Amino acid sequence: MAWLTCFITCHRSPSRFSYIVCITSADHISTNLDSIYWYLFYNFLRLSMIHEGWTERAKNLSHRMVAEALLRRHADPNFADDDGYTALHVICTRDKDDGLLKEFFKIVDEIPTSVQVDAKDRFGNTPLHLAAAGGKLKLVELLLKRQADPNSTNEEGLTPLHVICTRNKDDGLLKEFFKIVDEIPTSVQVDAKDRFGNTPLHLAAAGGYLILVELLLKRQADPNSTNEEGLTPLHVICTRNKDDGLLKEFFKIVDEIPTSVQVDAKDRFGNTPLHLAAAGGKLKLVELLLKRQADPNSTNEEGLTPLHVICKRDKDDGLLKEFFKIVDEIPTSVQVDAKDRFGNTPLHLAAAGGYLILVELLLKRQADPNSTNEEGLTPLHVICTRNKDDGLLKEFFKIVDEIPTSVQVDAKDRFGNTPLHLAAAGGYLILVELLLKRQADPNSTNEEGLTPLHVICKREVDGGLARQFFMVADDMKKQVRINAQDKKGNSPLHFALSRCRNRGLVEVLLHRGADPNLANEEGQTPLHLVCNKDHKDNTAYQFFEKCKFKKKPVEVDAKDKQGRTPLQLAVANLLIEEVNLLSIYGADPSKFVFPSRNDFYEALGYPRRRQFVYEGG
Q1: Is 119 contained in some domain?
Q2: Helices (H) and strands (E) in the chain, counts
Q3: Rounded Cα gap, residues 520 and 532, in angstroms
Q4: Of 569, 562, 489, 571, which is closest to residue 529 (Cα–Cα)?
Q5: Does residue 414 sit in helix, strand or coil?
Q6: pLDDT value at position 35?
Q7: In sequence order, which residues have a C-beta less than 8 Å from that of residue 591 and are 6 or more positions away?
Q8: Were 440 and a residue from 284, 409, 524, 577 both cysteine, which residue would form a disulfide, CB within 3.0 to 4.6 Å?
Q9: What is the CATH number of the domain that holds 141?
Q10: Which sections of the protein are ANK repeats (predicted)?
């Protein structure tokens, strides 16, 4: 018997005897199949399948005889390894088609023995899935003609048709696939859905494969089928990050078939294809959709129209200008003051983003500058809440003057705040100045009774904003109520003195005539507040000196509603400097009452203790 060398290897686990490669010399090949069989048997090798070995060289060396020998000795052609791979799976994953599959089927037919053409590996893939994934047309044809199921699904729910439509190239495979199934004939489910609900048309559209899209549509694929996200193929096209003419051709194809496409279909978030195209800034897609009668006023679950979506984008690339141009040409009407579920109009969103060009375009389209959202905010409020001043407010006023249209500069939000309140709260000096010059009321109060000056004094330190506030108000001949009290009776001076390191602001207020003896609803004067906290910047001294200079006597022995004097609070807070100053400026020691235990607790930040009175009997 001729010498035969067998190499036992495995492409997944070298320790397992999963397939055999036989190499020998053509001059010494044995035709005695029994001797091959017994050689393998006595080497304790299981007669399973030939997973590898049929190269051109192998065929030249008559290795077909080895496979035939094993199969004739009842080797199982359907034996699967740990990954569920049968011989048929392995053949369909090879890099080239050299006639191996054809020879395999020829041998099993001659024996004969049955082959499971739809056997699945551990991922649920059949040999047809693998052949399709590799773009092996001849193998696909052979398998289909052997009754391979073209609708079999793997664990992802993908059919071979899905697999073909996910490949990153079109080499004619799909066209031939349909040609073959028509010749057999067998039916193919062109609208089969994977586990995410995607049809082959969804996948072809996502990949931008125009030829595949055309072939599928001409096979009656449903252009309105939705996946789990509610996306149709049209949605998918509009989410792609480039416009390569696919949508234009898509519409051209459906018109030729013909079939209807729902251009206003909504995904699970309520977005239409127009919403998605607008969000991506895809001008050509927006134009095509609008010319196909897409509704420019359709709202998603957030209440956003495509116009809202355009105005939320973080850049202006001319999309809004072209959007209006297109709707004028069609023509169709656009609701420029449509409100989302929070009550925001497109103008609110453009203002919030600081998009001047969009603001201008919207205002020139008669967008209402006084429209309010759920919070009662107008676009003017929104501009005044932005954390920077980039000239938007100045241009806003310039535009409304040119149109012209009126803007309510003292409009109040649901908390009663005017734009001036918000600009003051943000410390935006230029905005405050612009609003005052537009006749904004410097004494308007919100629901807490706070004026813009109160708001300034709640946040201001050095007095710069307050000083400018008064200067502009003077220029506009507007009287500022320096002693206005909020609902708790606090004046701007109360707020200024309730904070540390605020000498500059206190000086400005006293210079403008703030009353140093005005008491709030708790009976506390500004001096009580000075003595209730260590300001660490000689605030008490400056307070007394400024009042002396302005000839405003300070009531140093004023009592709050708990009967406490400033001196009592200064002692409770251990403020030695303030105690000395109060003595210098006339505090009456005969009226001094030593602080209670609760006063000390309060000064130290602890809650006041309850006092219980025991009544014996």
Answers
A1: yes
A2: 32, 2
A3: 15
A4: 569
A5: coil
A6: 57
A7: 557, 565
A8: 409
A9: 1.25.40.20
A10: 123-155, 196-228, 269-301, 342-374, 415-447, 488-521
- Among all chains, which residue has been given the structure tokens 């234009």? 248
Can you give the pLDDT at residue 71?
A: 72
User: In this structure, what are the phi and psi dihedrals at residue 9, rounded to the nearest 5 degrees?
Assistant: -140, 170
Structural domain boundaries enclosing 46: 33-189
Question: What residue type is assigned to position 616 of the chain?
Answer: G
Q: Decide if 302 contacts 341 (C-beta within 8 A).
A: yes
- Write the DSSP symbol of residue 7: E
- For residues 356-391, one letter each, b for 16 or more C-beta atoms within 10 angstroms of the residue's C-beta and e for the rest, the string is bebbbbbbebebbbebbbeeebbbbbbbbbbeebee
Residues of the chain with pLDDT under 70: 1-68, 95, 97-98, 461, 500-501, 535-537, 599-601, 603-617
C-alpha–C-alpha distance, residues 214 and 253, integer Å: 7
Residue 85 inside a domain? The answer is yes
Phi, psi of 194 (to 5 degrees): -80, -175
The answer to whether position 372 is within a domain reads no
CB contact at 8 A, 322 and 287: yes
Token reading at 438: 């537009």
SS3 category, 275 = helix
**H or E element in which residue 352 lies:** helix 346-353
Q: How many CB atoms lie within 10 A of CB 93?
A: 17
- Sign, CA torsion 313/319/320/324: negative
> For the CA atoms of 356, 359, 360, 364, what is the dihedral angle to 10 degrees?
180
For residue 52 the two structure tokens come to 């590898």
pLDDT at 76: 85
Indicate whether 86 belongs to any domain: yes
Asked if 302 and 340 count as a contact pair (C-beta separation under 8 A), the reply is: yes
Location of structure tokens 């004939």 = 185
3-class SS shares of the chain: helix, strand, coil, % to 5: 45, 0, 55
Find out whether 159 and 133 touch, Cβ atoms under 8 Å: no
Number of structural domains the chain divides into: 1
First to last CA, the chain: 127
| 580: CB partners within 8 A, 6+ apart | none
Decide: helix, strand or coil at residue 287: helix
* Joined tokens for residue 375: 């919070």
> d(Cα 294, Cα 421) in Å, to the nearest integer?
42
Would you call 606 exposed, middle or buried from its count of C-beta atoms within 10 A (0-12, 13-18, 19+)?
Answer: exposed
Beta-ladder partners of 7: 21
pTM above 0.90, yes or no: no
- Cis check for the bond before 112: say yes or no (omega within 30 of 0): yes
Phi, psi angles (nearest 5°) of residue 7: -105, 120
**Spatial contact of 323 and 356, defined as CB atoms under 8 Å apart:** no
CB 119 within 8 A of CB 88: yes
Report pLDDT for 52: 46
Max CA separation in the chain (angstroms):
132
Q: Which two tokens stand for residue 436?
A: 């005052």
